[in-house]
């Protein structure tokens, strides 16, 4: 049995910097990964099959061709293998929630099956395969802090983030990404990159000079996001609160894990029913399972 963790992807900053003629928006984002996430397990099998478990499994039960199976089939075709696999996805993250759950699941599937089947395609081909599954999937292949730009095809290492605590909050709603982009108006932003600070307060100050350009349209579509942000801002020790991705999940940045755990406990005691709340820190990625330079797609 091969097991791969699929960490939540957090957009610490997200600037919309342009739009291509085909309608795709150009982004510049500082992406990090939490030690909160899903799990993909794979074992030998005659055919490709998928079993679902975890608290959010029912949200995927009606999708016969979700990203995990699509990733498995794409890798099998690219690898020219006739091997199968029994795959199990433990879905701990809410779906359509702005934290890259589906993309991270797909990337974890590629890593798991690469180990099970004895290797992955060359880096350039693997990135093409991942990008075809979703714009965020490339950055999720090696889940570590990165600057992501273009439509997701360009990924550059950002360096190690300082020790910090995270509280993730989703007010129990799903916000479709295309709707948020369609609701975005106004001028485009400029990239706002910075050297990674040495501590959590410094990181919060640096991030405060950036934004998530999708927060405004997402709030108009789902006002409950504002309630989640206000709840995070009110917690003792909160250094920064912001929406991730296209929403509706928001994150609070804290000095360390104990502070985040205490804040999450407080929030759970007073949050409305149906809110998803989790506390943790940064995902400590092992030696990259995917090697080779990225050239973009």
Give short descriptive properties of this protein:
297 residues; alpha+beta; Alpha-Beta Plaits; 6-stranded mixed beta sheet; 9 helices; 10 strands; 27% strand
Fold blueprint:
Elements (H helix, E strand, L loop, with lengths): L1 E18 L5 E21 L2 E6 L13 H13 L4 E7 L10 H17 L5 H11 L3 H5 L4 E5 L3 E4 L7 E6 L6 H7 L16 H9 L6 H7 L2 H10 L6 E4 L6 E5 L2 H14 L5 E5 L17
Parallel strand pairs: 3-4
Antiparallel strand pairs: 1-2, 2-4, 2-5, 5-6, 7-9, 7-10, 8-9
The main β sheet shows up as: 6 strands, mixed
Our count of domains comes out at 2
- The backbone outline, from C-alpha atoms, is globular
The H-and-E topology, N to C, reads as EEEHEHHHEEEHHHHEEHE
Measured as a percent range, the helix fraction is: 25-40%
Quantity of strands, as a count = 10
**If you average the pLDDT, what whole number results?**
94
Distance between the termini: 32 Å
Based on CA atoms alone, the radius of gyration comes out at 18 Å
In the CATH hierarchy, the third-tier topology of the largest domain is known as Ribosomal Protein S5, domain 2
The CATH class assignment of the largest domain is: Alpha Beta
Total number of helical segments?
9
Can you walk me through this structure?
The chain has 297 residues and is of the alpha+beta class. The protein folds into two domains: 2-157, 2-Layer Sandwich (Ribosomal Protein S5, domain 2), CATH 3.30.230.10; 165-280, Alpha-Beta Plaits (2-Layer Sandwich), CATH 3.30.70. It is built from nine helices and ten strands. Strands 1, 2, 3, 4, 5 and 6 form a six-stranded mixed beta sheet that branches. Strands 8-9-7-10 form a four-stranded antiparallel beta sheet, with helices on both faces. Helix 1 (67-79) runs parallel beside helix 2 and helix 1 (67-79) runs antiparallel to helix 3. The radius of gyration is 18 Å and the shape is globular.
